[in-house]
Amino acid sequence: MKHRLSPTDWIQAAFRALTTGGPQAIRAESIARALKVSKGSFYWHFKDVPALKQTMLDHWQQVATQDVIDLVESGASDAKARLQLLMHISTALPNDAYGGDLAEAAIRDWARYDTAAANAVKAIDVQRLKFVETQFCALGFNPQQSKQRATILYAALIGLHQLSHHDLANPASDLPALLDHLLKP
Fold first, then answer.
1. pLDDT tens across 11-67, in order?
2. What's this model's pTM, rounded to 2 decimal places?
């Protein structure tokens, strides 16, 4: 019996296409070919490619942001432990089903040319920064210090992942070291 593809299968394949070929690679025909199915399977789940792209952005917000926040909140009892867990999760091995550790950079590149992607990236960045800022506030830093520390930590995460592609950084050790520095009053 042949396995029926789910919308998530298509979304993951679309992220892999984005990661390897950019936003222009998000095409029903090429993704169907990569999944070794007919294009009809795509239209069973999505109205068209723009609908797939919007679903990808919504899915990314849920899986790479809200689900991570939920996991961190349920897995650590205080703000310091939540930040440490967040750094561990953020630097863990990437999910190859979504294109690996290049997926986030590919989404950010897509956002440079696409308004919907840009809006999604901005909303997700705001959500992530607010979560980290809240943790620093809970540790007793004033709002300005909390916002600054959150921004520095988040920017370092993005930058360290970029540098790691050229073996110029190790986010798994560099980010926790930065967090230790930022936790000092």
1. 999 999 999 999 999 999 999 999 999 999 999 999 999 999 999 999 999 999 999
2. 0.93
The burial of 29, by beta-carbon neighbours within 10 Å (0-12 exposed, 13-18 middle, 19 or more buried), is given as: exposed
**Which pair of structure tokens corresponds to residue 102?**
């290049």
The model's pLDDT over 114-132, given as tens digits with 9 standing for 90+, comes to: 999 999 999 999 999 999 9
* Integer Cα distance of 22 and 111 in angstroms: 11
The Cα angle at residue 128 between residues 85 and 132, in degrees rounded to 5: 55
- Closest of 94, 109, 121, 96 to residue 26, by C-alpha: 109
Q: What's the angle, vertex CA 61, arms to CA 144 and CA 33, rounded to 5?
A: 145
Residue 99 per-residue DSSP state: T
